[in-house]
């Protein structure tokens, strides 16, 4: 059996109605996993689940949930268990960034929203899913962070702060849960061509300048993140814990 086989596993992937989350969900299903598609919009989730089920019948379930509300996440996890019995893999992919500009201009509400959605919601989801993983002595938790957490910025400073905190969230949980064979890791993408990152790449001049200086001469595509996510969820990464896997095509070098 392949080290990357996910047959019989069930994964919750937040923010999976589009972009990186959708690419991960599609690849998980292709590797045998049941996948729960979740974002704020039920119709968008339904569309993705339907597309996956056409290729992999019965493997996808759409359950909308806002990461801003703990009760919604509790409902998401409960409905996942109803549909598939258990949660084996958690991918905390959804995030928010309502503000672009210097830190001096950010409002308290915007700062709190970034911290709550990008850190606290991950903590909530981990707390909701980890107990059954601990009981079974098996599980993989993946937090989608960013190389922004390794840098300062004059446009996305608060977002970068939240992503740096996610690295430490992962390290702490890895220490607590590693003894139970529950692995907790982060993926740190570089600039990926998603709707979420549109303000960073939609300017043609900025895009051309980025690509001229990038080691691989291109921006990342959402599928570039799917492989690392499969790796971290699978037995291939059975001794990978508390790590930050940078997937940026070489931007940080």
Summarize the structure in short.
With 253 residues, the protein is α/β, with parallel strands linked by helices. The chain is 46% helix and 14% strand.
Give the proportion of residues in helices.
40-55%
Percentage beta strand: 5-15%
CATH superfamily: NAD(P)-binding Rossmann-like Domain
Q: Note poorly predicted spans.
A: none
Word description of this protein:
The chain has about 250 residues and is α/β, with parallel strands linked by helices. It has a single domain (about 10-245), classed as Rossmann fold. The chain is about 45% helix and about 15% strand. It contains eight helices and seven strands. It has helices spanning about 20-30, 40-55, 70-85, 110-135, 155-175, 200, 205-215, 225-235, and strands at about 10-15, 35-40, 60, 90, 140-145, 180-190, 245. The protein starts with 9 loop residues before the first strand and ends in a 6-residue tail after the last strand.
Defining traits:
single chain; 253 residues; alpha/beta; Rossmann fold; seven-stranded parallel sheet; 8 helices; 46% helix
Secondary structure: elements and pairs:
Blueprint lengths: L9 E5 L4 H12 L3 E5 L3 H14 L4 E3 L7 H15 L4 E4 L15 H29 L2 E6 L12 H21 L4 E8 L8 H4 L2 H10 L9 H11 L10 E4 L6
Parallel strand pairs: 1-2, 1-4, 2-3, 4-5, 5-6, 6-7
Helix pairs in contact: 1-8, 3-4, 4-5
